[in-house]
Amino acid sequence: MLQRYALLQRISVMALKPHRLHNLADTTSLGVAKRPRTMATESSSSSMKDAFSQYADYLNNQNDKRERIVKASRDITMNSKKVIFQVHRMSKHNREEVLQKAEKDLAAVTDQFVARLVKELQGTDFWKLRRAYSPGIQEYVEAATFCKFCRTGTLLNLDEMNATLLPLSDPSLEPLQINVLDYLLGLADLTGELMRLAIGRISDGEVEFAENICKFVREIYRELTLVVPFMDDSNDMKTKMDTMLQSVMKIENACFSVHVRGSEYMPLLGSEDPTSFLLAVPSVDI
Amino acid sequence: MKSAFRNGYFFTLSRSLNPNPNPNLPSTLFSLHLIPPHSSPSISPPPFRSVSPIARISGLSFTSMAGGEPHALPLLEKQFDDFRSQLEESGTLRDRIRAVVAEIESTSRFIHSSLLLVHQSRSTPEVLEKPKAQIVVLKELYNRLAEIVRESPGGYYRYHGDWKSETQTVVSLLAFMHWLETGTLLLHTEAEEKLGLSGSEFGLDVEDYLVGICFMSNELPRYVVNQVTAGDYDCPRKVMKFLTDLHAAFRLLNLRNDFLRKKFDGMKYDLRRVEEVYYDVKIRGLAANVDSVEKAAA
């Protein structure tokens, strides 16, 4: 029983210093040293067993943790996607209502699922397990920046996002902070959503909104071209840049068609803009 | 407490050009204040649930957004400028890491080539002389590597990929040398000690160590074959015992479907080859005298 307890303690120590085994290893090397030299082969095979059972504990512990983090990340992805869909339900009549709900949902994702991830990751090496949680965080960045853009037309900064994560973690430990790479990967995905939104807005008659989206997305694309070459694993990002360019062009083409054939579209769109030259035409006629 | 610093916090900390001299300083707060004040509402309520100053300037509706743009864009640009300088900085750090790793690689290549003489029936102490002298060099290089990585607190696993495979090779060489000398397995702690990594924040990753051990096992069948050819008929028995123990020890691990698992799966072929050699030697009665010694001992 005592031994078990000691083992648990050792495991928890390992959880804190994931790549090292010093604390337990100190005890083993002592144990080895105490054994008489003459029994070299026997003591070596048992010390080998001892050492490997420690490695086994370490690996088990780490794999379990990774598994839990992957799950938490998946939940974040799923629920962030729901937030994004909610934002897409926006039209010019229900804007406030839809956005409010989306923001509420996003706050729920933060408090529930991101908080769980933060708890799991607490006290461990964020970079080591990054591959396990990165997809969820990217989706979350996408949802949060998407909401923010629809609300204010500005980009939600990484620092702002990270500030919202601070209250989730134990103040005595290093808090989980979204790293630049995940943030940028999330932003790259954001443009795809913005493209969809822009197309939707155009067909709903909110051309100006679409033009604002276009400007914003262009700006992000332009800024990202300067940053991408410095990113660690830029291959993933490079394919995202290609899709992003596609998105930008789609928005531009949509804006272009409206611009060129604007006078044809306007009446069909049922614009309520009072400056519309077609205002005189009663809407019942359309 | 120290462990709290191993995390993905690099991007803010890295901006402090002055490497934090006191590791016990609460670097969280420290780094948060490094963020330019206007981009960080550090303690204020969650920003995306509140209305930011920019939104207030530009008004809430998109129709008036054009007016807000001049305010919004510089901020956006500023953030990306920051990102660029952060990423550039970590890029230079990575280049420095790679330079050291290249040296580690060439040292371990030298050790490897010296160790190859073991197959040419030279006496073991004579063969080990040269490569053992190189361990000091390795130690020094790892020390330098650790120092560079220390500049990025919590960045160990961010850059881990840059020295991973080289370190696995180093472990395999150290373990092989250790085995030649003592006939025992080089344990994780002993490997760290040899590389001067004990007690430092920069440690030897357990999985890297285990992969290195698997690499070492790949070396053994060839060693056995050549030893027998050179007339050492007791060698297969010793190696077989060692490899059997090692294989049994590895089976204690629950491995994921990853590289280590693959390497471990390969180990049984090494064991089989050694067993075959042992069989060949034994069936011809070449190992007989050793057997009788064993029986006498038992």
TrEMBL record, chain A:
Record InterPro entries: Translin_C (IPR016069), Translin_fam (IPR002848), Translin_N (IPR016068), Translin_sf (IPR036081)
Keyword Ribonucleoprotein: no
Any one annotated GO CC term: nucleus
Top-rank lineage group of the source organism: Eukaryota
UniProt keyword list: Cytoplasm, Nucleus
First-listed, main subcellular location of the protein, grouped into a coarse class: cytoplasm
GO MF: sequence-specific DNA binding
Family classification: Belongs to the translin family.
UniProt name for this protein: Putative Translin family
UniProt KW rRNA-binding keyword: no
Subcellular location: Cytoplasm; Nucleus
Source organism of the structure: Rosa chinensis (China rose)
TrEMBL record, chain B:
GO MF terms held by the record: RNA binding; sequence-specific DNA binding; single-stranded DNA binding
Subcellular location, principal: cytoplasm
Alphabetized UniProt keyword annotations: Cytoplasm, DNA-binding, Nucleus, RNA-binding
Superkingdom in the source lineage: Eukaryota
Pfam families: Translin
An annotated GO BP: RNA metabolic process
Family statement: Belongs to the translin family.
Record-given protein name: Putative Translin family
Organism taxonomic ancestry: Eukaryota, Viridiplantae, Streptophyta, Embryophyta, Tracheophyta
